[in-house]
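Lecture 7 notes: from sequence to structure.
We start with the chain below.
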Amino acid sequence: MDFPFSILKRETFFQLLCVFFAQRWPQQAVALWRTGLLLSFLHICTCLEEECVLGVVGRPVSLPCFYPQLLTFKDFSIEWRKDDKVVLRSVFENSRNIEELSADGGTLSSNATEAGDFSLELPAVDPAEDKRNYGLFLISEANQSDALCTVCLRIAASFSRPLVRREEAADRGNDTSFYCHSAGGFPEPRVHWLINHTAEPPEGSVRTVAALLPDSYLYNITSYLKVNVSKALSVSCAVENALLNETFTSTSYGTPPSKVAGRASEAMWIFSTGLSAVVGVMVAAGVGYQIHLDRVSKRKKLEFQYQQNKRGYKRSRLTDDAESIVETEVTMVESKESNV
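Predicted structure tokens for the same chain:
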């Protein structure tokens, strides 16, 4: 592990000072040497890399600091600081926490004197605390150590599910405008638009405005998209919060046939099919009835002709019989005359 030059310089100076004290005042030099060993150990521990803790707005958060080496001391004081401001001070005597003063409602972990857990418990956080550095310091009567633990705090808050609205205006030609709004999140999010779930809109067609609320430090985000798309195509707006690894998406599905319209179309199709079937049956019945009428008319016509022919036959037969009778009577008269 590489140590900063300033730390090595302080340690070298302290060693030289201890040698000087050992030559002049041997007994005092032993105590000074022990103190030097402790401070050197604290310097080494504070060279660890700073870590960040994510806090969610309105929820409690714990800033971790495990330092069981402090339990070897009976009487000591510690301070938690936010940047340069003291937010908590605790005094320990005989390994017991006898006094604790807090500025922001923070408290030490309940396992401080048992497991060396000196974590700072904050009841709630807000966006104003984002990117603040916290440190735990050991305080003695005349000296102050470097930070035993350092923690950076990041703040995040979830955005609401975006509201997407489609606006079509005749005076804008073929372009369609889309409006996407999401509120109450932190930090400022990324906004993504997708056409038909896959294609990105053309460059320059998107304008996004983020408004920081002065009271809560939360963001309201509004994004506008103006693009030439078909009414049937879907357009999606996604709001991404990278810190929380959250992405909320809403989609405008254009104007496809709705379920009601689909049912109406289905009912219309059934009605038209039924109507066509009824008309077909009526036409078939009409044609059949017309054929029946033609057959009846033809039969009546044939019967009439038959009756006419039959009457003519009877008349001609009566005429032949009359002529035969007349001829017979004439023959008889002539026979009588010849006899006379």
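Points to note: The two ends are 185 Å apart (CA to CA). Residues 1-21, 35-49 have pLDDT under 50 and may be disordered.
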